[in-house]
Every structure is written in structure tokens, then in C-alpha cells.
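PROTEIN DESIGN WORKSHEET
SECTION A - STRUCTURE
LENGTH: 259
C-ALPHA CELLS:
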């Protein structure tokens, strides 16, 4: 259980700070029904091999298998709806213009659909496609029709379409990590929600914020690898805690911020 004073302290800082950065990971969307990667029983990387399913080499080895796996995950994302945590973040940002930066490792679009389209996406967008490589002929590739269980390919050069997510060993999207670093350096409060802190460079953002003078609060039901960077660790879920940390008490009519 979290001490009521801790919730009150984080809440007070969130509402006083001139710059707040929220960094989210897969746990942010867990209560929307999207599986995380490393949770003990349900995490995707507990059941599937990331080398086979989330690397260029794995895709080249078996494009149809990888394409089908992403098609299933895309269906899950399309069917999911933002939870109370996504909504609390977006509403907080709209109530306090110019204060909030959201940086996510998630490839779903739930922050955007909750009303925060300017979310910085470090690991790409699972619902978007891109070409596997620049056109080897130096022209614009053109996807030919493909059966639903196979990735479209360019009729001219055979280049394959792939999901626009960052795979292991790949660079983060241009500009995204710079914007995230700037937000980490410039914030007074960093709220880290639902990440194991196992994947870099995202995992370094909490330490960057702390070294730049920010207070760091973590929201996670379980220990993470970056708990040491936090001034406060709140044990609980995104949908459970974020409305209490970021919500509008006046509008909600709730004066109780106890644990
Ligand atoms: P992980 O699966 O590594 O960690 C999920 C975290 O969410 C864990 O620490 C859980 O304890 C926590 N969690 C679970 N349910 C929660 C809830 N309801 N509320 C809050 N927290 C909860 O996911 P990430 O840290 O996001 O990379 O993983 C980082 C990257 O590794 C992902 O972006 C992905 C993966 O490989 C790419 O897609 C490139």
C-alpha cells in the first residue's frame, strides 16, 4: 500500500511543476488488454523469441511468420481502448497547456486516442508500414497485392513491407530520442509508468531527469530495474494510480487522495 503522503506529494508536484514528463512502457496499456513483454506469466518475450519475431534477421528468415504475428498484435491494438490512466494523462496535459511531454516506448496508439496526439514514440508505430530497405533500384517501391497472411512486396524489386516498429539492433526514429532527452533534462517531475527499465536508451531517461534536477516517481505494481533512480516508488497500476496523481479533484468532486 502507498502512504497517502507519498501520493499527495507526487500529486502536489505534478500540479505545481512547470514541466512534467511522463515516460510510459508496456504496463501503461496492460489494463487495456495489450500484453507486456516481460511480465512473468503473460509477457510476450516469455512466450516468443524476440530474435525470431523482432529483428531484421528473423523477418528475412521467415517473413510470413513474423507478418502473421504482427497482424495478430495489430488486431489486439485496434480492439483495445485507452484506460483510465491514458485518459488521466491526456486530460492533465489539456488542463495545463505547455507543461506535459509524454514519451512512450509503446507501439500502440492509446495515448493518441486518449487525446494526446503529440506523444513522442520511441519505438515506432505498430499500425504503420514501412519498406524493409531503401529501394535497391533507387525508385519508389510499389506494393503488389498479397494474400492476407503474407507481407506485401514490391512487384519490381521484391522489397518487403514491414511493420514500422523498432526491432532489436535498430536505431530509434530520428528526432524521437533527442526530443525525449530534452524533455527529461527540462522537466521538474518525471513520472515513469509501467516499464521494466530493461531496454535502453529509454531506460536511461529517468536517470537523465534526476541528474538534471528533476524529481522522479515510478508507478509500477512490481520492482523495476530503475527503481533506484526514483525519489518515490508507487506500487500500483496505471489505471488505478494515474487518475489520483493527475486527475482534476475539483471536477471529480473527490477530496480524498489517501491510499
Ligand atoms: P516490459 O514488459 O519490459 O515491462 C512492463 C512493466 O510494466 C513491468 O515492470 C510490469 O511490472 C509493469 N506493469 C504490468 N502491469 C502494469 C500495470 N497495470 N500498470 C503499471 N505497470 C504495469 O515492457 P517495457 O518496459 O515497455 O521494445 O519494455 C521495453 C521495450 O521492450 C518495449 O518497448 C519493447 C520490448 O522489447 C520494442 O518494441 C522495440
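SECTION B - SEQUENCE
RESIDUE ASSIGNMENT:
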Amino acid at each position: 500500500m502507498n502512504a497517502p503522503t507519498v501520493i499527495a506529494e507526487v500529486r502536489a508536484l505534478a500540479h505545481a511543476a512547470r514541466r512534467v514528463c511522463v515516460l510510459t512502457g508496456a504496463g501503461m496499456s496492460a489494463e487495456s488488454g495489450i500484453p507486456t513483454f516481460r511480465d512473468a506469466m503473460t509477457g510476450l518475450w516469455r512466450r516468443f523469441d524476440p530474435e525470431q519475431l523482432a529483428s531484421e534477421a528473423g523477418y528475412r528468415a521467415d517473413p510470413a511468420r513474423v507478418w502473421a504475428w504482427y497482424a495478430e498484435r495489430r488486431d489486439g491494438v485496434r480492439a483495445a481502448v485507452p484506460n483510465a490512466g491514458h485518459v488521466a494523462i491526456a486530460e492533465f496535459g489539456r488542463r495545463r497547456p505547455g507543461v506535459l511531454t509524454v514519451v512512450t516506448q509503446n507501439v500502440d496508439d492509446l495515448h493518441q486516442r486518449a487525446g494526446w496526439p503529440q506523444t513522442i514514440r520511441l519505438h515506432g508505430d505498430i499500425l504503420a508500414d514501412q519498406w524493409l530497405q531503401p529501394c535497391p533500384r533507387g525508385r519508389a517501391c510499389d506494393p503488389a497485392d498479397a494474400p492476407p497472411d503474407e507481407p506485401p512486396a514490391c512487384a519490381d524489386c521484391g522489397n518487403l513491407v514491414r511493420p514500422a516498429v523498432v526491432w532489436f539492433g535498430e536505431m530509434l526514429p530520428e528526432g524521437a530520442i533527442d526530443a525525449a532527452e530534452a524533455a527529461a533534462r527540462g522537466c521538474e517531475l518525471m513520472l515513469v509508468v509501467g516499464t521494466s527499465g530493461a531496454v535502453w536508451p529509454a531506460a536511461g531517461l529517468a536517470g537523465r531527469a534526476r541528474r538534471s534536477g528533476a524529481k522522479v516517481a515510478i508507478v509500477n505494481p512490481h520492482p523495476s530495474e530503475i527503481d533506484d533512480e526514483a525519489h518515490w516508488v508507487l506500487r500500483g497500476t496505471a489505471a488505478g494510480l494515474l487518475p489520483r496523481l493527475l486527475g482534476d479533484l475539483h471536477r471529480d468532486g473527490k477530496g480524498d487522495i489517501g491510499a
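SECTION C - NOTES
Residues 1-34+81-123+169-259 form a domain with the Rossmann fold fold (CATH 3.40.50.1220).
The chain has two domains: 1-34+81-123+169-259, 35-79+126-165.
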